[in-house]
Amino acid sequence: MAVFARASVLSDFSAFAISQGLQPMEMLAKVGLPSDVEQHGDNLIPFRKLVALLNNCDLHSGNRLFALQYGVSQDVSLFGPLFYLMRNAKDVRTALNELTRQFYVHSGAAAVTLEEHGSHAILSYAITDTAVFGSRHAVERALGVGMQMLSTLLGSRWRPQALLFQHAAVVEPRHYRQVVGILPSFNSVYNGWMFDAALLDVTLDTADPVLHRLIQGHLDNLEHMSEQELPRLIQQLIRRFLPDARANIEQVAEYMKVSTRKLQRQLAREGTNFQKLLTEVRQNMACYYLQDSTISIAQMADLLGYASQSAFSRAFHEWYRQSPRDWRKAREAIKRHSQHASSRATT
């Protein structure tokens, strides 16, 4: 089943594509997106077409950081009502909690999570559509937009402590620093921004409690119409708990303050169960790590909450009928073939 995002994710695409020596209409047509997609930001587009577009733009422009630079160039108003809800929250913590709670309105293929670890806070982004491969570009675009959003909320107070990527560097790290002002940490547990947790308490000068309640009511109505909200929340929690080997239904139920039996019944009403959601998250994360990072299979097994590398390898073979190493080699071969075909087409 196709997963969609608001077409506003492509705001300002034409101008940026032209600045990179591309013909925007041609690039949109290659992936089956309409030429006027930017003029209809509230329409829905398949998330996989966004990923394909960013991949093609990377190849045809020769700019490996196309998506990151594009995200940094975008205006945060692309979030629509969600951004105005955030701007009218009382403080940064409330604003970011609204973002995590309502992000599905903007994109059904990804989730945003806010975590506090002592004096540090991490705003992370994860693609939840298990059918999407080669999503490095989508992640980098999203974190570029995230930088702009945090800068808009905090102004001169915005001083990130770290930029985290689960994938490996595709160019020299100094080139990333030229775009975002900081050297990223690669092959990380998260895709996200780390910053001083004290910034969460910064009050927003733009806060309007009345307007905040009105917008919140509008978005809550959308939320109640979504049958996918509970499974999406469970998958967010699974991703949060996996690295600590705590991604079990008992831990999630305790976090949500419900009994495991009640949680099982609620998931059954949605046509799913905890084990299925856990497997989907692990499949998605495994494919992402194998394709876009350079971490070892043993490290991957640990990050995915497996007791051993062999347990992870057995599970992976059950999913895809090949070992993790063979899957990685096959994807690398496909990527090389695609890059070779693209270079031949442009010569």
TrEMBL record:
A Pfam entry, by short name: HTH_18
Entry's Gene Ontology cellular component terms: cytosol
InterPro entries the record matches: AraC-type_N, Homeodomain-like_sf, HTH_AraC
UniProt keyword annotations, A-Z: DNA-binding, Transcription, Transcription regulation
Keyword Iron-sulfur annotated: no
Single GO term (MF): DNA-binding transcription factor activity
PROSITE patterns: HTH_ARAC_FAMILY_2
Residue ranges occupied by any HTH araC/xylS-type domain in the UniProt entry: 232-330
Keyword DNA-binding attached: yes
Signal peptide: none
Protein's name according to its UniProt entry: HTH araC/xylS-type domain-containing protein
Organism: marine sediment metagenome
